[in-house]
Structures are given as C-alpha cells and as structure tokens.
Amino acid sequence: MTLSASSPVGIFDSGIGGLTVVKAIQALLPSERIIYFGDTARVPYGSKSQVTIRKYAQDDTGILMKYQPKLIIVACNTVSALALDVVKRAGHGIPVLGVLEAGAELAVENSRNNQVGVIGTRATVLSNAYPLAMNALNPEVEVFSAACPLFVPLAEEGFIDHPAAEMIAREYLLPLLDHGIDTLVLGCTHYPILRKMIAEIAGQEVRIIDSAEAVALKSKEMLAGNGMLNGSQCHVFPHLLVSDLPQKFKSLCELFLGKDIPDVELIEV
Ligand code: DGL
C-alpha cells in the first residue's frame, strides 16, 4: 500500500460521538481528507462485553483499511481502552492513535495537584485504562473515575442545559469534585456535547480535558513528524460511513458536527 500526504485520515467510533473528534481535526487540520465510520447499527459499545468490543474493533478497522488511510484515529474511548491492540494489528503498521492515550497525556501535563478525575462509559471505567495510562506517565497522579452512562442519551437528545441533565451531572460529578481534583477528563466522545454544563458544575478551578481535542493535537504532531501533513489548500467535507441511518441522524449530525451534513454512505457490517 502506498501512502502519501494526500491519503485520508480514517476515524471510527461506535456511533456518531466520534464526530466531536472530526470537528476537532477539521478545526486544526482543515486540509485533511477524513473518512469516518460510525457503527450506528451496533452502538452503544460502552455496555457490551470485552469480547464483543474487540470483535467490533476488528470489523471497524477493516472497513477503514479499504480506504488506505495514512493514520487511524480511534475516536471511541471504549475501544481505545479495551481493543487498541486489535486495531493496531488490523491496521498492519499504519499509525494508530487512540483518544484515551491522548486525553491521559494532556491530563497529566495539565494537572498541578496530581488529582485527576475521569468520566466515561462503564466499560472504559471498569477497564482501568485511564489510571494505567496516566500512572505510566506519572506514578504520582491519583485518578478518580466515574461511569456516566446517562450522559450518552442526554447528549443524543440534545439535553445540553436541561435541568434534568444538570441534576444527573451533579450526581455523577460531585463525588469526584469532593476529592479535590483540578483536572477532569471527558473520557467519552459524546461528553464534549455537555461540556459547558459539566464545566459549570466543576467550577473554574477544574480544567476540562476533551479527549477529542487532545487526539487532534496528537494527530497533527504525528502527521508532521512523519512528513504526512496534507499541504493542499482545499477544504473537503468528511466522508461519512454508517452502518445504520437512525431517524434522528440529521439532527444528531448537526449537534455533533455543528455544520451541514457531509455525504453519507450506508454500509453493511
Ligand atoms: N463514543 C463512545 C466512547 O467514547 C461512547 C458511546 C458508546 O457507548 O458506544 O466511549
């Protein structure tokens, strides 16, 4: 396979949550051609077993590989936590970046008191992958985690500043804040949709780390390092592949991407 700077960047997630990563990449690297696969037929991954998540990760990577990407971004914390090795193997040497590693690194860099909070899906929190990644970088960091399963449907319903969402968020976040964290990782690609509300509850003292923004920064660094940045001045719309077209697809896309809908292709998994 011949890769060049004009090859696309492949991105996948369990559904459309990873469009927050697409948005961050577009903001930072507007010339990159993006192929995005959202496994909308099988979302959510966060409540599935490890065996199933690893099987899905293999399928998702296989779909992106058909487009010969120069970089694969795992825009799903759950897959990054439980199946990054599967993606690397199926990627046959193509560089792979996971949102989790990028988010963990940025959190460790930003924390001043080494007390870091992480919120994510049940599978991500149970995997312990964030504490492991952060402690590998700095053993002094203490990590407090909370699974926030209701955040995914709240984000998808657009309950961005709804009082019900705020009540649930307080329930999830206050125990973490009691530990005196100064940094909070949004360890699920759906959560940036709720960022404003989460940041208001966390207060000004707590720095919010968006794993989507973190992986965009890391992608730029990696592509530049490999001489693979696309130098073209053309801005192309991302190409979206989905395994199902949910009824709310258009409004969900707008919510996550904040723009007109790019071209969408329905594929079988
Ligand atoms: N986008 C997924 C993640 O980042 C969460 C949604 C799901 O459970 O599939 O973990």
TrEMBL record:
Pathway the protein takes part in: Cell wall biogenesis; peptidoglycan biosynthesis
Q: EC number(s) on record?
A: 5.1.1.3
Alphabetized InterPro entries for the sequence: Asp/Glu/hydantoin_racemase (IPR015942), Asp/Glu_race (IPR001920), Asp/Glu_racemase_AS_2 (IPR033134), Glu_race (IPR004391)
Give yes or no: UniProt keyword Acyltransferase.
Answer: no
Task: Note the superkingdom of the native organism.
Answer: Bacteria
Please name the Pfam families in this protein's record.
Answer: Asp_Glu_race (PF01177)
Which positions in this protein are listed as binding substrate?
A: D13, S14, Y45, G46, N77, T78, T189, H190
| Keywords, in A-Z order | Cell shape, Cell wall biogenesis/degradation, Isomerase, Peptidoglycan synthesis
Active-site residues annotated for this sequence: C76, C188
**GO biological process, alphabetically ordered:** cell wall organization; peptidoglycan biosynthetic process; regulation of cell shape
A Gene Ontology molecular function term for this protein is: glutamate racemase activity
Recorded catalytic activity of this chain's protein: L-glutamate = D-glutamate
Of which family is this protein a member? Belongs to the aspartate/glutamate racemases family.
Report the function annotation for this chain.
Answer: Provides the (R)-glutamate required for cell wall biosynthesis.
Q: What is this protein called?
A: Glutamate racemase
UniProt organism field: Chlorobium phaeobacteroides (strain BS1)
* Classification of source organism: Bacteria, Pseudomonadati, Chlorobiota, Chlorobiia, Chlorobiales
Gene encoding it? murI
